[in-house]
């Protein structure tokens, strides 16, 4: 009875409005990064650029996020969290709106790099900002709600902005997202609490964190989990074509998105209680879904269920690893999550490059084998890392 009352009390005091608003920030953050991929043919034709140059519109953004996350999060540690977030939202808005108005590829690339730098600071700082607004028992829940915006952006936001881009032009898509970001910034001014920054000490520097064995374990799990997922996800269209899935990429993304949304809801509810179990389950579901693709190919129904299982595995990816790394430190959680965020982005780049090389030699099914090869050690490490993921 006492436990039930405590749970009810926790739910009452959980600042849902603030956390959902923060979730909208991660929603537009992922859209800012991935948006060009849905309208690349349009952008290539109008800007008269090659496929490689088109790919750089997303690639340079990710590289900027990975490179600048750790140094800039460390430099901005002392800044007021609310003011810093508003500055980052302004950066997102301006980079998207001006890119939508620009006629030159070089200018757009420069703006994409600015957007990437803002993202590199935003992803780790917003999770740490959210954790400071709740008690310790709700840290995982806070991260899960905030990072739900990332999954919603991939599963729901991308189809919407791609539709806008295809119907009204890619410039309209960029400008519309920029205006939407300004609206979120306006809400943040009135809703988000003002929170002071922290002093960066020697014990909380990125280099000090890298000496903590538990942090290194989380970074290794991040490398394995992210590489396994994104090595296949980036080339999901190739996989769908290879297995000749009934309903094509639309049905694959719909089922993948449905699975992701369900697992995000589960992560919100259970991350604080069962972090290790959820991490083991994430790797296990990935292995099972990839095995189904290998064994049953595009068999109608079975392959569709595999995309749903894969989505279940994919949904809590960001939440689990950010929650895990934040548990390893008492203060300067921004720096800890920035180290993890950089590892996340570098893992995406490694996975994309490695999978691209494999696709040049083998069929897309090789990517499912690669995912299994990366997920098995991830599963074993998660299972035995009782102290780290407790």
UniProtKB/TrEMBL annotation:
GO terms for cellular component: plasma membrane. The keyword Nucleotide-binding does not apply. It holds the Pfam family MFS_1. One of its GO terms (molecular function) is transmembrane transporter activity. It is a multi-pass membrane protein. It is found in: Cell membrane. The keyword Coiled coil does not apply. The chain crosses the membrane at residues 12-31, 58-76, 83-103, 109-130, 142-162, 174-193, 214-236, 248-268, 275-296, 302-321, 342-361, 367-385. Gene3D superfamilies: MFS general substrate transporter like domains. This is MFS transporter. Residues 17-389 form the Major facilitator superfamily (MFS) profile domain. InterPro entries: MFS, MFS_dom, MFS_Efflux_Transporters, MFS_trans_sf. Keywords: Cell membrane, Membrane, Transmembrane, Transmembrane helix.
């Amino acid at each position: 009875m006492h436990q039930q009352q405590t749970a009810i009390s926790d739910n009452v005091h959980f600042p849902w409005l603030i956390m959902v608003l923060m979730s909208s920030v991660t929603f537009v953050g992922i859209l800012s990064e991935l948006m060009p991929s849905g309208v690349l043919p349009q952008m290539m034709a109008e800007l008269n650029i090659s496929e490689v140059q088109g790919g750089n519109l997303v690639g340079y953004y990710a590289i900027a996020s990975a490179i600048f996350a750790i140094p800039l999060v460390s430099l901005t540690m002392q800044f007021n969290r609310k003011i810093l977030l508003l500055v980052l939202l302004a950066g997102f808005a301006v980079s998207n709106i001006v890119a939508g108005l620009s006629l030159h590829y070089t200018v757009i690339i420069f703006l994409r790099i600015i957007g990437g730098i803002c993202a590199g600071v935003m992803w780790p700082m917003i999770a740490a900002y959210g954790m400071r607004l709740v008690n310790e028992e709700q840290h995982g829940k806070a991260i899960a709600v905030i990072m739900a915006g990332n999954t919603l952006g991939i599963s729901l936001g991308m189809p919407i902005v791609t539709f806008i881009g295809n119907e009204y032009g890619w410039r309209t898509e960029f400008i519309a997202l920029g205006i939407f970001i300004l609206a979120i910034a306006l809400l943040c001014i009135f809703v988000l609490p003002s929170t002071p920054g922290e002093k960066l000490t020697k014990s909380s520097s990125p280099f000090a964190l890298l000496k903590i064995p538990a942090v290194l374990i989380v970074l290794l799990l991040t490398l394995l989990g992210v590489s396994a997922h994104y090595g296949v996800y980036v080339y999901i269209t190739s996989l769908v074509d290879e297995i000749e899935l009934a309903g094509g990429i639309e049905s694959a993304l719909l089922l993948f998105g449905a699975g992701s949304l369900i697992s995000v809801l589960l992560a919100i509810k259970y991350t604080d209680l069962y972090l290790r179990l959820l991490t083991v389950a994430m790797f296990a579901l990935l292995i099972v879904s990839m095995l189904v693709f290998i064994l049953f190919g595009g068999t109608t129904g079975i392959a569709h269920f595999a995309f749903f299982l894969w989505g279940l595995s994919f949904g809590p990816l960001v939440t689990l690893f950010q929650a895990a790394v934040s548990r390893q430190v008492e203060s300067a959680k921004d720096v800890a999550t920035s180290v993890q965020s950089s590892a996340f982005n570098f893992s995406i780049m490694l996975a994309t490059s490695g999978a691209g090389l494999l696709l040049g030699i083998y069929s897309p099914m090789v990517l499912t084998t690669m995912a299994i090869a990366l997920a098995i050690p991830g599963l074993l490490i998660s299972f035995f890392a009782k102290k780290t993921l407790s």
